[in-house]
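FYI - complex with D-malate, inputs then prediction.
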Amino acid sequence: KQRFVKSLSLALCFGAAMASPQLLAKTFRVAVGDGAGGTQHELGKSFSEELKQRTEGKHDTQLFLNGQLGDEQATVNDASMGLLDFSILAINNITPFSPSVGVLTLPYMVQSLDDAVTLTQGEVGQQLVDNTIRDAGVRIVGWAYSGFRVLTNSKQPVSSLADLEGLKIRVPNNEIMIDTYRAWGINPTPMAWSETFTGLQMGVVDGQDNPYITVSAMKFDEVQKYITNIRYLFSIEPLVMSEAVFQEQPEDVQQAILAAGKAATEHSAEWLVAQEDRIKAELVENGMEITEPANGEQEWIDKAVSQVWPKYYDQLGGKEKLNQILQSLGRDTI
Ligand code: MLT
């Protein structure tokens, strides 16, 4: 009997050794909310190349663009249950699952690419990584930087808040963004990202806000005419991994994933700087008209900051916490 057990375990060991190269090689599935040519796509491609290089070609990814694997908010649920390996989505679509992430969608908090890099790659970013693992079961392993969300619509040039009257504006299902539009005097329409193009095309809504690069990647120039160059939200779009799937990986693969995510994040910042102006010019060539907000955007800023910020102090860890963040960005405290 002993001999049988010994040969059985030898056979199992041998089988495992033979099978291991195949078992280890894995193509991770990555949901991408936006279309081709956007910052999410670029982050995904870069992450994939970096991961392949760091795992000697064993690990790769397959990107499913344009919300093919479901709406951005739905992909967080799927990843948290281990049904999906990765998702690249806008930070504002993670906030419903992990409210502290809302610090990155507070209107006028992030005022430049530098601010975005400081917050995501410093202490605040690390806390948000920990919080999203705890609250949403997903681990942020990389960040795409997409530029300011500008307002687009199909009806009229918008410069002042009064111009917004009567416009139906789509927003993500994100409380802070809904409250921002309310502070600006209108009631926006929450709508899933995957339904937004059709919503604009069918006239269910007249407008929406997203960065120039996203407007282009989603072909919104086909259904929108006017852009208002507001700067209330600098769009930050993380690459998140199912924490359950991350924990299943051997240590060396985990390290390769984290390093690939870091490298892809650096690439994203460079890519934004290199591409944003070109893409903005293309939108104008395609017929879009850009309007600057009146008086340096002052009324937009005043209303949003005075009415929205106080409502979220508690959810975001208190006023003191926000003051620390403002100080780390070299700005006045509140
Ligand atoms: C949204 O507006 O829902 C998202 O920010 C869009 C995106 O992921 O690009």
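Confidence is low (pLDDT under 50) at residues 1-23. Residues 33-34, 72, 89-90, 92-93, 172, 193, 210, 214, 237 surround D-malate (CB under 6 Å).
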